[in-house]
Amino acid sequence: MNYQVFDMHVHVFPDVIAKKAATSTGEYYGVPMYADGTWVAFQDSLSREPRIRKSLIHSTATKAAQVEHVNDFVASLISDTRLGFGSMHAEYPNIEKEIDRMLSIGLRGIKLHPDFQGFAADSEEAFRIYAYAEGKLPVLFHVGDPKSDLSSPKRIRRIHDAFPRLTIIAAHLGGYGVWEESEKYLVGQDVYFDTSSCLEWMEREQAVRMIRKHGTDRCLFGTDFPMHNPTACIENVLALGLSIKDNQKIFWENAHKLLRL
């Protein structure tokens, strides 16, 4: 089966910081990076994997002062086959105004990485983001970190309970490195999961159990580029042995429904 693939988890950085950003990310997680995160590297990865027809690009503002610059950069990359999520920070002073501007420049959601941004995902300051984004933009969270509790599945569940109309995408099958906690707090809830940076390390049985219990209607494909080889990420999903229909949902259909394409 020759699947069409929508990669919902791609990082691209401005050239001046790309190599440093990719290197520091790899060092933090103890993972050798597949590429350097530049625009050229991203384009090269697509030329090597023609099954990926569309991509969702995002970057993270680690400081509040970076929010507008990050959003402008991601918006500059948007095309018919490239969509973008903007960034926000709990300490940013004009959350409502910037979310409105995100919409005006074509960004389709918000990406948060609480561990790198230095705030708890369920802090009162961060709640200001969700209160305004609810019903307007989905929020993609990096979830889970064995070194930090700021983005734990338990915190994401609290956000979901407090803002039930907020569309949440919990990356890494709901909790990088803490999948048992994801099973406890997020599996079966009305949130999306993506498959980025998880299948490389999880037991196949656990991944299949979580995806089937959560429902393939709420699972999205992601590579976490530049961390992983996109071809290997696709093959990791195929190796789960799901049905053709379920693979089509994960690789393509769910992303289109979520983003209303």
Task: Describe the main β-sheet briefly.
Answer: 6 strands, parallel
Q: What is the helical fraction, as a range of percent?
A: 40-55%
Order of helices and strands: EHHEHEEHEHHEHEHEHEHH
Please tell me how large the radius of gyration is. Answer: 17 Å
How far apart are the first and last residues' alpha carbons, in Å?
A: 23 Å
| CATH topology-level fold name | TIM Barrel
Oligomer: single chain
- Overall outline: globular
User: What is the class in the CATH system?
Assistant: Alpha Beta
How would you describe this structure to a colleague?
The chain is an alpha/beta fold and 261 residues long. It has a single domain, classed as TIM Barrel (Alpha-Beta Barrel), CATH 3.20.20.140. Helix content is 43%, strand content 13%. It is built from eleven helices and nine strands. The strands form two sheets. The protein has a six-stranded parallel beta sheet with strand order 4-5-6-7-8-9. A three-stranded parallel beta sheet has the order 1-2-3. Helix 7 runs parallel beside helix 8. The longest helix is centred in the last third of the chain and has 16 residues. The mean pLDDT is 96.
